[in-house]
Design brief:
By secondary structure, the chain is mainly alpha-helical. It has a domain of about 110 residues. The protein has a two-stranded antiparallel ribbon with strand order 1-2. A two-stranded antiparallel sheet has the order 3-4. The longest helix has about 30 residues. It starts with a helix and ends with a helix.
Length: about 220
């Protein structure tokens, strides 16, 4: 007996439903991946609650900056897993007296000072720029130590393929993944580079670093 038209419609509807679910799942994964870590540094330069121009703080004095080193504010970057952001007290250490020389700077520094209530500074909810999935472990200290080690026998290969036997500074090491942050008024991912798994694996292979799953995954 041939299948009745109603039966065919039900089968087609069931197949269509399955296809729709699969396509929807794939789209959800792609969208989550995009918004958590946009590929090639696209679309992830969120506005911050208080403007922090790295050009002023970390930029070279010749370019009008203060030349502050990365590790002065991100103090855990050479010691532990996370780079960490400075406490408000550390910002106020300077800006309790430094009020800014332009109208916009004065306004933003005023916002910083207003975080203090009854003498206790409130934390600033900075927007995250660089994201990694929760199951990925990236230890900043290990990477900083590798690229800054004063060992002429180590041939370091950067992400862009450049090789060097000279140790990098901490700030130069930071630019390998984060780009020239000292030249950014608003921090955003490094142009043309995606901090995806393939980037990490390529760098590990080129520098003879283990690529076992347990090295990077919790």
């Amino acid at each position: 007996m041939s299948m009745r038209p109603t039966g065919k419609i039900l089968v087609l509807a069931g197949v269509g439903l399955v296809v729709t679910v699969i396509v929807g799942f794939v789209m959800a994964v792609v969208l989550i991946s995009w918004f958590s870590n946009p590929p090639f540094g696209l679309g992830n330069a969120p506005p911050q609650p208080i403007a922090f121009p790295h050009t002023v703080h970390a930029g070279l004095p010749a370019d009008g900056g203060m030349g502050i080193q990365c590790e002065f504010c991100h103090r855990n970057v050479t010691k532990g897993e996370a780079a960490t952001v400075p406490a408000v007290e550390q910002c106020l250490f300077c800006h309790i007296t430094v009020g800014g020389s332009t109208e916009s700077a004065i306004a933003e520094i005023s916002l910083l000072r207003e975080t203090t209530e009854d003498g206790d500074p409130l934390p600033i909810n900075w927007e995250r720029v660089h994201r990694l999935p929760d199951h990925v472990r990236f230890v900043h200290e290990a990477h900083i130590r590798f690229f800054t080690a004063p060992d002429p026998n180590i041939i370091r290969t950067l992400i862009n393929g450049e090789e060097t036997t000279e140790p990098l500074t901490v700030q130069q090491t930071c630019t390998v993944c984060h780009g020239e942050v000292a030249a950014m008024s608003v921090v955003k991912p490094k142009a043309g580079q995606s901090l995806k798994m393939g980037t990490c694996l390529d760098c590990h292979r080129e520098n003879n670093v283990p690529t076992d799953c347990t090295v990077c995954h919790k």
